[in-house]
């Protein structure tokens, strides 16, 4: 890497770098992810279990697809990109109805969640050749659900070596593409309904 300090970088350790003199210069490259601050602080997280505009999964379907990051809609559920993805292309499949528990889904909701999950896998494989997937639901706050009141299934693409030192040591995920661009690619590659 020729752009690191000491290797031909425009910011040699004794020069004022991008932070304009704040702190002591060092050889580390920083990857800023300010969009994650909303997740860390709980911004937009519902304060109650009620349906309506306070629930992002109830609000999202009323927005235009590109703005909401919705990739595909079905009769009883929709697929949307995760705002705080674990990996590039991380989607969630969400029933329109505000329901917390998988056992409370109707047969139509179960069918749409399952079909959209399959189609999400196909679209991600087409766009980015995922090697595998983590697919699942966290049922209840105690099980790790960030928004426990509105069921959502995660579809997380995986590649060999995608868990490296960055998330383990640096607690940072490197996402190579803007969410709007990812949404556009996945929407164009979404399989035709069978």
From TrEMBL:
Keywords: Nucleotide-binding. PROSITE patterns: HIT_2 (PS51084). Residues 56-165 form the HIT domain. The keyword Nucleotide-binding applies. SUPFAM superfamilies: HIT-like. Substrate binds at residues 82, 154. InterPro entries: AP-4-A_phosphorylase, FHIT, HIT-like, HIT-like_sf. It comes from the Bacteria. One of its GO terms (molecular function) is nucleotide binding. A motif (Histidine triad motif) lies at residues 150-154. Residues 1-27 are annotated as: Disordered. PANTHER family: AP-4-A PHOSPHORYLASE, HIT FAMILY HYDROLASE. This is Histidine triad (HIT) protein.
């Amino acid at each position: 890497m020729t752009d690191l300090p000491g290797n031909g970088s425009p910011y040699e350790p004794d020069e004022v770098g991008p932070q304009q003199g704040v702190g002591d210069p060092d050889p580390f490259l920083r990857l800023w992810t300010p969009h994650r601050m909303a997740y860390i602080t709980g911004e937009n997280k519902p304060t109650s279990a009620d349906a309506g505009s306070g629930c992002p999964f109830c609000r999202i379907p009323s927005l235009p697809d590109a703005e909401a990051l919705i990739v595909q809609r079905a009769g009883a559920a929709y697929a949307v990109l995760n705002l705080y993805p674990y990996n590039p292309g991380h989607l969630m499949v969400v029933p329109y109805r505000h329901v917390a528990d998988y056992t409370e889904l109707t047969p139509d909701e179960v069918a749409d969640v399952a079909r959209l999950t399959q189609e999400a896998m196909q679209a991600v494989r087409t766009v980015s050749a995922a090697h595998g997937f983590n697919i699942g639901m966290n049922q209840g706050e105690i099980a790790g659900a960030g928004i426990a009141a509105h069921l959502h299934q995660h579809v997380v693409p995986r590649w060999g070596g995608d868990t490296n030192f960055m998330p383990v040591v640096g607690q940072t995920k490197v996402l190579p593409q803007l969410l709007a661009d990812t949404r556009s690619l996945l929407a164009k590659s979404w399989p035709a309904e069978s």
